[in-house]
Q: What sequence folds into this?
């Protein structure tokens, strides 16, 4: 079977791209399998019309709507690899290999859990990445931001915005790095607390984060901890050899969303630090439209189906 587009990844980016391409009457295979970024989250916020929806319900609804478009096939299969060239890709999808004119990568990113006892268990409800997603539910409570050395030069941008939700914010450097003097004065002047000692443990009661205990014994009340653990691309993206930027995100042309490999496009979290479901969905739609335009400009196009 020759598909116009094989989309790898069925999160907000891939589902949105499939919708646009289905409505444009393109033959699409959407493959989805493996871990997804918000698997640990109970609710998805800040997606207009879907605020507070569960991630599973979001995906179920999207698939239900896709089922109206006969040229879109959705399969729960893992893509093991992509070979071939633009116009004639071969995609290993589960036990089958299918052909595709174009490939769209919507595989998200993998978050690496930080080596702190309890981090994995709290990830998604008490340890989160984004105040727009989770801030409202914990407003006016004690918050922390676990900064990492990679963020030293710009961490105040993230930390200062947290004061919009609560006046009680503590930045933890976990003994990892020296905070630049300018950042330190800015944070203190703005009323944030800074703790530079190594974190001893996360104090948890009945699955809720209560405090951060430092190695020097100090306990800092903290009910919501922000953290941006390192992330990596999934294997299929790494194996394709698409160019990555200095932070490890897939480089795309901002308009076409074309990667460095001709015929391979990318949308969603794997391309940006601006990681949110609605942003991923928007970039998926954009990639789909640009792929569609490119296909329609191809002299080999054989007409509407
Ligand atoms: C804990 C947490 C909570 C969050 N809460 C919110 C929130 O409330 N609101 C919000 O807007 N954003 C939230 N986000 C961010 C949001 O989840 C992401 O921005 C969004 O899911 C990105 O969509 P995506 O389609 O790019 O990737 P994903 O949603 O990660 O989807 C990628 C999909 O690709 C699949 N895949 C990967 N490799 C393969 C392969 N080889 N073959 C087949 N399939 C593959 C994966 O299984 C996955 O289903 C949260 C993130 C986290 C970590």
A:
């Amino acid at each position: 079977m020759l598909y116009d587009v094989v989309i790898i990844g069925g999160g907000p980016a891939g589902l949105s791209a499939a919708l646009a391409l289905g409505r444009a009457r393109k033959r699409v295979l959407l493959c989805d399998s493996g871990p997804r970024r918000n698997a640990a989250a109970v609710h998805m916020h800040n997606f207009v019309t879907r605020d507070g929806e569960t991630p599973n319900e979001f995906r179920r609804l999207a698939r239900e709507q896709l089922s109206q478009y006969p040229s879109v096939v959705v399969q729960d299969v893992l893509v093991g690899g992509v070979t071939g060239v633009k116009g004639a890709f071969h995609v290993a999808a589960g036990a089958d290999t299918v052909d595709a004119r174009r490939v769209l990568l919507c595989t998200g990113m993998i978050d690496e859990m930080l080596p702190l006892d309890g981090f994995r268990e709290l990830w998604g409800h008490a340890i989160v990445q984004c105040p727009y997603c989770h801030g409202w539910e914990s407003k006016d409570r004690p918050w922390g931001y676990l900064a990492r050395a990679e963020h030293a030069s710009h961490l105040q941008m993230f930390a200062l915005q947290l004061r919009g939700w609560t006046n009680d914010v503590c930045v933890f450097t976990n003994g990892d790095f020296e905070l630049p003097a300018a950042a330190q004065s800015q944070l203190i002047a703005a009323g944030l607390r800074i703790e530079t000692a190594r974190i001893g443990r996360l104090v948890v009661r009945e699955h809720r984060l209560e405090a951060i205990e430092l190695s020097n014994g100090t306990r800092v009340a903290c009910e919501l901890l922000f953290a941006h653990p390192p992330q990596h691309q999934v294997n299929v993206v790494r194996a394709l050899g698409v160019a990555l930027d200095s932070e490890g995100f897939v480089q795309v042309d901002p308009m076409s969303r074309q990667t460095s490999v001709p015929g391979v496009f990318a949308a969603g979290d794997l391309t940006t630090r601006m990681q949110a479901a609605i942003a991923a969905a928007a970039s998926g739609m954009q990639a789909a439209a640009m792929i569609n335009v490119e296909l329609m400009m191809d002299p080999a196009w054989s007409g509407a189906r």
